[in-house]
Batch of 3 targets.
Target 1
Amino acid sequence: MPKGKGPQGKRITLKMAKNSIRVAFNGRRRLDLSKMGIATFPKCILELADVEELDLSRNMLKKIPNIIEKFQNLMWLDLHSNQLDELPAAIGTLQNLTFLNLCNNKLTTKGLPEELTLLRNLRTLNLGLNCLETIPTTLGTLRELIELGLFDNALTIIPKSVKNLPKLERLNVKRNPLPEFAEEEKPIDTIKRIESLYLVEKKDLCGSCLQTCQGERDELHKLEDMTPGPSNKPSFPSLLTPNSSARDNQEEWRIK
């Protein structure tokens, strides 16, 4: 078996990592290792632990080791679309984090460490598309939160401490079995309006997302089949109407 293949996924070298550093519009340095086929956290990137942003999204990571604590300058961390079922306690040491995306993983309630509440500067936290049955009331200590994504989980209640966060502007709890939202799920219109459009390649979608997209496409095709076709009523555009030249020439015809 060739080196770097198989269960360990793609092997990332320090040279590859250095070539993956980009400077964002805000001037921060971002280490972008998304969509690289990584299954194990690459230890070589510890040499680049002074970056402000780290993107490890759309890989095959099952675990984030405690050495993540070496990235003390991190303000932006994207881990969405991996296979994580828990976070390390060391996540709480990243005191400068303002953005944390954990969407589309396998996180359970037990997989959320108490140390997550130490991220007091966090403004955006996305926990959507996971396996959460409850939300720790201690998340109510993240008083700088502006956006919180909890959609597509198994939540039956949202703690008041979370609902009442002082700076919270956007709370997405769609597609959870929450009693208070049961009546709101009735369809309002037969035509679904698009709120957001994301263009991604089919190979980048997870199984559940691909199934959802295919279902939406089938529904669209049904609507197209129901669209009325052209009228079968005969049309004679070349015929002249009564208010035409025929009327203007009728005196001439009578004379003839």
Target 2
Amino acid sequence: YAPWCPACQQIEVTWESFAKESEHLGVTVGKVDVTQEPGLSGRFFVTTLPTIYHANDGVFRRYRGPRTLEDLQGYVSERKWEAVEPVAGWKSPSSIMMHGMAGLFHLSGWIRQIHSYLTGTLGIHVWISYAIFILATLLIGLFLGL
């Protein structure tokens, strides 16, 4: 979820109720703020918010059903998740490819922080910051090419 997301705000009360009932269902329920954990959003290939996953014994399934408390509870208690196709091996959050995707999301956050530092703290014009990143990209490419 993200704090600014209207759909996330709409499901928040239901999700909190589901979390309170989770002990009776024998599951653990959590939520992750993708603005604070961009690596996880990359690792789980989050393209829409909110995104709900069911994980059991290292197998991940994306929940795409209705977002009512009864439907969420039924998904677990009636074992409806067994009928859902697991996330493909290469797209699984535990795969090497998704570890790499998480790394790219962390890198993009780091680049954004550097850009903010250059423009906000040091007062460098935005286009000069862009030029610095272009030059760094060319130099890194040249170095790797050698």
Target 3
Amino acid sequence: LLFFFFSRSSVKLVAPLGCFVSRQKHTLPDLPYDYAALEPHINAEIMQLHHSKHHATYVNNLNVAEEKYKEALAKGDVTTQVSLQPALKFNGGGHINHTIFWTNLSPNGGGEPKGELMEAIKRDFGSFANFKEKLTAVSVGVQGSGWGWLGYNKEQGRLQIAACANQDPLQGTTGLIPLLGIDVWEHAYYLQYKNVRPDYLKAIWNVINWENVSSRYVTCKK
């Protein structure tokens, strides 16, 4: 039994290692708004550096790690495959998390969600105010770098708040489907809010894109 292995220029047959590999390089997604669009809550300098430098670095490093993994897979080099897992997790998580984060924000955001999402928030947290307080507290409490998340527990059919360290992706590490992520790495706020993370978290609620979060919720329930 042979498996197809795709390279840029050709299709090769390689010895079986249990998977079918086909991949295109990851790319940095465009923002759906200008860098200055979230001011005064998140300034343009932060957005430009965060998107064009930090997120771009995760994308580039992910592509490098996947290329090395592809080579190790073709050779049957399990040791190298295992050694690449931290880089895949960190850079892959950084790409996944930020791709969600940009769509979770909007210059027309803020306020409160409506419809099914609001009903679920009231059901699972008592009120929107309680939910906002809990997610803020979890995000403030992240030690070092990481993320605060609102996720959907598909098995239990309920919303759940969680924190992830560094760039650990929510679904890949907890099983929760990501709906709303709040980046609490210092690069997300330090230039504007210095070391006062609570001020940044207070401000970010003014640009949360509830239409996007609601759409994610409706989709993951199907």
